[in-house]
Amino acid sequence: MIKIETCLTPEILSLHQLEGKIAVVTDVLRATSCMVAGLNAGVNSVIPVIKVEEALEYQKKGFITAGERGGVKVEEFTIGNSPFEHMQEEYHGKDICMTTTNGTVAITEAKKTAKEVIIGALLNVGTVAEYLKEQNQDIVIICAGWKGNPSLEDTLFAGALIHRLQDQAELTDDASFMALAQYQQANGKVADVIQNYASHAKRLSGLKAKSDLSFCAQEDYCSILPILNGEAITIKKN
Amino acid sequence: MIKIETCLTPEILSLHQLEGKIAVVTDVLRATSCMVAGLNAGVNSVIPVIKVEEALEYQKKGFITAGERGGVKVEEFTIGNSPFEHMQEEYHGKDICMTTTNGTVAITEAKKTAKEVIIGALLNVGTVAEYLKEQNQDIVIICAGWKGNPSLEDTLFAGALIHRLQDQAELTDDASFMALAQYQQANGKVADVIQNYASHAKRLSGLKAKSDLSFCAQEDYCSILPILNGEAITIKKN
Prior knowledge:
The structure is a homodimer.
Chain A: E1 2-7, E2 22-26, H1 31-41, E3 45-48, H2 52-60, E4 64-69, E5 72-73, H3 83-86, E6 95-99, H4 103-113, E7 116-120, H5 125-135, E8 139-143, H6 152-165, E9 169-171, H7 174-186, H8 190-197, H9 199-203, H10 207-216, E10 226-229, E11 232-235
Parallel strand pairs in A: 1-8, 1-9, 2-7, 2-8, 3-6, 4-6
Antiparallel strand pairs in A: 4-5, 10-11
């Protein structure tokens, strides 16, 4: 049996032992959804960094820069954190350096000790589940949350992943059980639940943000597995 | 509308602003259930403290001492943290000093800034809800959790409370919505869900612990409102 634990916010990541485990990091709105959508469309790699200054160093080296602070695009950056921006044809084959309020911090933390870091979003949740079944290793699902607080959409991702793994998995903490129950309670209407109840959805306003939200809330839109190799996230080839 | 937010673990309590708000602290297994059960049976007051040494100072002054470390009764203490111990006739009219791994720490933290601290358990959740409706003030529900992690039983208490308040309340964070969904998903079978899925339930073994668990999982067993007055928790009189 695969042992699964879920960390609902990076604030309590130190309570989780990541050594020897596969970490699956998610930030559904919108960092990891952007990464998955971009890589699936043709982006070559994404380097997650913590600080705006670090991203600007990569910009000097020719990288596309992407990301936000407090939900707003960083002025000097090429693009923000709408998945549609990351999918644009002009970035196919390009390398992106990205920094966001919650998501890239969670990835950087996970990298320090986990055996492997997988990038998950609702968009590729089925593919992540299939990969984890094959690996048959213990897993920690790390939800980026919102400024230290648990978030509904990331918890639903954890539940969607656990739902797909549950025949082969043992849930070792209450957070995993709660995430699964949350997903079951959504009863196939994950997008509606996120749109109606997630506080992050209320913070996103305007037509463009609404279409980002509908896009990011789709389960199994694509079947790629982004994995962290050294500094960069790339698609794992079979 | 009453604004409600939920803190799923004291580790992130600093992200919540308690000033001017009513804090409802819960530790269903078993600190606040013991307090509620004891006070309802006839205990005069309960003083929550952080350290075993502090409790032993109260013991010298004639207090009954109660509590655990890692789920085990502290050797020098009069009683542990089974609600049945707290309900014994010999403690009616007596003052108890209590320290536990998670619950008393959460109460002590809440006391620092909240306008008022209420002690909640499934046992008295309906009475807590009625009181909060009358007060019509903003609320933070603080779940004691288990060693820094969210716990299912405390989250279910939060959901049970929010469920009773929802017509008059606005949920201001995702944790509150998730707690409510968790309670709804339990579909009237809160005790079964705790017994079958809470990791804390798995840690409790033996017949005595099982009866503690069934007892603590009861909603609306009694109708008292324990409130923190200075150092001591007592029943609030109408």
